[in-house]
Write a structure and sequence with these properties.
GO terms for molecular function: aldehyde dehydrogenase (NAD+) activity. This is aldehyde dehydrogenase (NAD(+)). Belongs to the aldehyde dehydrogenase family. It comes from Siphonobacter aquaeclarae. The chain is of the alpha/beta class and 506 residues long. It folds into two domains: 270 residues, Aldehyde Dehydrogenase, Chain A, domain 1 (3-Layer(aba) Sandwich); 184 residues, Aldehyde Dehydrogenase, Chain A, domain 2, CATH 3.40.309. It is 37% helix and 21% strand. The strands form seven sheets. A seven-stranded mixed sheet has the order 13-16-17-12-11-19-20, sandwiched between helices. The chain has a six-stranded parallel sheet with strand order 1-8-7-6-9-10, with helices on both faces. A three-stranded antiparallel sheet has the order 4-5-24, with no helix packed on it. Strand 4 and strand 5 form a beta hairpin. The longest helix is centred in the N-terminal third of the chain and has 21 residues.
Length: 506
């Protein structure tokens, strides 16, 4: 791993600055990244002090005044080169993500590919930041709408996607003319640092002003600085609903803008008309992938009563084939949870299921004979949707099976949780699919037919409703959140008519 760190530009002393990158740190406290794979420390970084943060913001403000005037396609060219650098370092960065966070190597590589994809998307977007021309009611007048960059965009990311979520925000923000200050999870700082050094090399070659990309490291306090700072017009935060509420209140209190990507409690409806050869792999990957630590993880399977016993049996057989272990090893499906606190949350949820009267189709287990204390067995419980433990998001591989009789009932069960991120239905019945996607169907930001809840593509806007926060990132027109809208009216006549026909003679 030390060889990979070196190739990614991470050396024993991680403090410093370079062109385009602002990574200010004082030699005070250090933050050590410990791999959940084997419990071993990987490396440490110095944490950001309030004084450091002030220098970061001032540098970013100065950079913005230059960066916003670069033509958008020129900014897009810089992002294109970042995509190429990611292609060259995909294996190294994906391996680091896997080892530092604990997801399988395939998922680590997939996360870097997602970064590459969003770079490609952003490059095209850099030539499409278009507004509207609007018909004016006044003669010889032209109305139009245009979009301008906001300024500093604060990004607070979570451990489960330590690099991809930053890229969703940063690549779009950069082509829009914004600058970015990133506060990564304190559990995965090295993956973030690797991205910063990669970007810095590209920035240096293109004479990008220092401060276009900045990194601050530390605990939740560093994120609070961004949330409370009126110089940061937009904060994009990914994490728990509890954290998101705190960010939303702080940002709204100063009338700033926020993009919130928070908890999910995602369900798959398995209809009587479902093809189980499609449904089973979708459920298993959705529930066990990333050890249940995705916001889009499948937490509930709502099954038609006529297929319940069949699905339960086939699903149990599929779970028996899951291999838990070192995520860097080929053929391993499930790696560790992020830390021992996550294991405790898994155990607490299991006890709540038992206390509620639930039974396990696949028994839970904390796996003791492993290199770290962070490994658990993915489990399946028969449950009721209204149980408190089912209503909350447990960031662990626990799947709940729930029966239904009529599709309208299944949709009501799907929607009857506080969260509203991702959802899907497996059916070959056209009317069922269309009802699920209609206004009377899923209330989630993502609704799929015959695919699972995980694995969103970057081309569509990503985000959810209710306690998921309502934010949208990545594709479609999510770029508009990183810009400010301006309506312009140009009078090219020799008269000054007023709107609405008002007469105001002087």
């Amino acid at each position: 791993m030390q060889t990979i760190l070196s190739r990614l530009g991470i050396v024993s002393d991680n403090a410093g600055t370079s062109t385009g990158l602002s990574c200010w740190h004082s030699e005070t406290k250090r933050l050590t990244s410990v791999s959940p794979v084997d419990g071993q420390p990987i490396a440490s970084v110095t944490t950001t002090t309030p004084e450091d943060y002030e220098r970061v913001v001032q540098t970013a403000e100065k950079a913005f005044r230059t960066w916003r005037n670069w033509p958008a396609p020129r900014r897009g060219e810089v992002v294109r080169q970042i995509g190429e650098a990611l292609r060259a370092r995909k294996t190294d960065l994906g391996t680091l993500v896997s080892y530092e966070m604990g997801k399988s190597l395939q998922e680590g590589l997939g996360e870097v590919q997602e970064m590459i994809d969003i770079c490609d998307f952003a490059v095209g977007l850099s030539r499409q930041l278009y507004g509207l021309t609007i018909a004016s009611e006044r003669p010889a007048h032209r109305m139009m709408e245009q979009w301008h960059p906001l300024g500093i965009v604060g990004v607070i990311s979570a451990f489960n996607f330590p690099v991809a979520v930053w890229s969703w925000n940063a690549m779009l923000a950069w082509v829009c003319g914004d600058v970015v200050i990133w506060k990564p999870s304190e559990k995965t700082p090295l993956s973030a640092l690797a991205c910063q050094y990669l970007a810095a090399d590209v920035f240096k070659r293109n004479d990008v002003p220092e401060g276009v990309s900045s990194l601050i490291t530390g605990t939740a306090e560093a994120g609070q600085w961004l949330s409370a700072d009126p110089r940061v017009p937009l904060v994009s935060a990914t994490g728990s609903t509890r954290m998101g509420k705190a960010v939303a209140q702080a940002v709204a209190g100063r009338l700033g803008k926020s993009i919130l990507e928070l908890g999910g409690n995602n369900a798959i409806i398995v209809s009587e008309h479902a093809d189980l050869s499609l449904a089973i792999p979708g459920i298993v990957f959705g529930a066990a992938g990333t050890a249940g630590q995705r916001c889009t993880t499948t937490r509930r399977v709502i099954v038609h009563h006529s297929r319940y016993e069949e699905l339960k049996s086939v699903l149990a057989s599929a779970y028996a084939q899951l291999r838990v272990g070192n995520p860097l090893e080929e053929g391993v499906h499930v790696g560790p949870l992020i830390d021992e606190a996550a294991v405790s949350a898994y155990e607490a949820a299991v006890q709540q299921v038992r206390s509620a009267g639930g039974t396990f189709v696949v028994e839970p287990e904390v796996l003791r004979d492993y290199p770290s204390a962070c490994y658990v067995r993915p489990c399946i419980a028969e449950a009721e949707n209204h149980w408190p433990v089912v209503q909350q998001e447990t960031f662990a591989p626990i799947l709940y099976l729930i029966r239904y009789t009529a599709l309208e009932e299944a949709i009501d069960l799907q929607n009857a949780v506080p969260q509203g991120l991702s959802s899907s239905i497996f059916t070959h019945h056209l009317r069922e699919a269309e009802l699920f996607l209609s206004a009377a169907g899923s209330d989630c930001g993502i609704a799929n037919v015959n695919i699972g809840t995980s694995g969103a593509e970057i081309g569509g806007a990503f985000g959810g409703e209710k306690e998921t926060g309502g934010g949208r990132e990545s594709g479609s027109d999510a770029w508009k959140a990183y810009m400010r809208r301006q309506t312009n009216t140009v009078n090219y006549s020799t008269q000054l008519p007023l709107a609405q026909g008002i007469q105001f003679g002087v």
